[in-house]
Amino acid sequence: MLDEHDHRALGQRLDLFHLQEEAAGMVFWHPRGLMLYRLLEEHVRQRMRDEGYQEVRTPQLYSQPLWEQSGHWENFRENMFCLPEGERHLALKPVSCPGHIHLVQRMAPSHRDLPLRLGEFGLVHRSEPSGAMHGLFRLRQFTQDDGHIFCAEEQVEAEVVRFVKSLRAFYAGFGFDHVQVAFSSRPAQRAGSDAVWDQAEAWLKSAALQAGLQFVEQPGQGAFYGPKLEFVLNDRLGRAWQCGTIQLDLVLPERFDLCYVDASGARVRPVMLHRALFGSLERFIGILLEHHGGALPAWLAPEQVVVASVGAGAAAYAERLVARLRQMGCRARADVRDESLSRKVASAHQDGVPFLAVVGGREVEGNNVRLRLRDGAQRDLAWDEAVAWLSAACQPAVAG
Length: 400
Prior knowledge:
Number of domains: 2
CATH topology of the largest domain: BirA Bifunctional Protein, domain 2
CATH architecture of the largest domain: 2-Layer Sandwich
Distance between the termini: 36 Å
Number of strands: 20
CATH superfamily of the largest domain: Bira Bifunctional Protein, Domain 2
Structural class: alpha+beta
Strand order of the largest sheet: 3-7-8-15-12-11-9-10
C-alpha cells in the first residue's frame, strides 16, 4: 500500500500515469499526465530558443561500431539494451551524445559558428536491474532534456558560468529553493589520459567557483568521458536525486575526430559540454508531485479551472465561461453534472484543480462568477474581472 504522498499514489489520484509489470521501468502516460509532461517540455523548449539552442532529433538504435567508437561499449555496455545483428549488435541509445556529434560533423562548423548549441528531448533506454527501479525516479525508459554545447577552449568557462548562474532561478520557478551541487571527478573506469582529465577538471572547477557555486566533492563519480557538476533535488523523504547536470568532455571530440576551422584555417578540436536542466523529465515530475503534494502550481496543473454549474439553468452559462477562458489560454472544463456542489468541489480538489468557478442562478442573473481557491477563500467577481483574474493566475509566475 503506497503512502498517499508518494508520487506513484499521487499519479493515480490525479490520473496522470501508471506503471505495470508488462512494461517494467516504463511509463503509461494518461491524457492529464501527458499534458503535464508537454508543459514541462515546452518550458524547456522556450528556454532553448531564448538561449540559442537548435532543436534536433536523432535515431534510437545504433550499431555496435558507433558505441565502440564513443567508448560506451567498453564503459557502459552493462547498462545498454542490445539486439544481435549477425556478428555484431545494435543497441538502443542510453544517451544522445554520439548522434549530436555526427550532426556537428555534417555541419562542418567554423570558429564563427561557436559556441554551437544543440538540444533534444531524447528518449533513452538503460538496462536497470529490477531491484533498482523506483517509480518515476529510476526507470528503464525516460526522456532527457539533452543539450550539447560545442565551443572553443576560451569559451568554456563563460558557457559553464552562463548555465549554472541561471539554474537556481529555473528551479525556483517550480518551487525548489534548495539545490545541492556536487562536483564529480574521474572514475576508475574511464576513457582519456590523465592529462586530459587534469585539464577538464581544472576548467570545470574554475568555472564553478567563478559562478559562485558551493559544492561537495564526489571523487570517482564522473562520467567515463569527463567530470561533471550535478544539481541535486530532494524528494519528500529527503533522498537526493540528481536532476540538472553540466559535464565537460575532451574525450568524445577526440574519439570522433571532431573539428572546427579557426580564423587561420586550421582544424581545431572543440570542447564538448553536456548539459541538462531536468535531467530526466520523468524523475523531475515525480519530485515535483511529492514536493507540492499533488497541488501543482496553477501554470502546471493539467486542468487549471473547473466551472461548476449549480442548477440546470446555469449549464449554458458555465459552458460560455469555459469557452471564453479557453480563448484566453486557460485549461478549463465545465462540470454540469446533475450532482451537488459539494460533490463537484470534492471532485475538483481530488483532481488537483487550483481554481473552481461556481455559477448558479444568482451569478447568471448578475453576470458574475464566484471563485473558490485552494485555500478555501472565495470571492465574487463580475464576468470580465473573473476572466481577467483567472487568465493572469494561470500564467507562469516565474519564467525561469
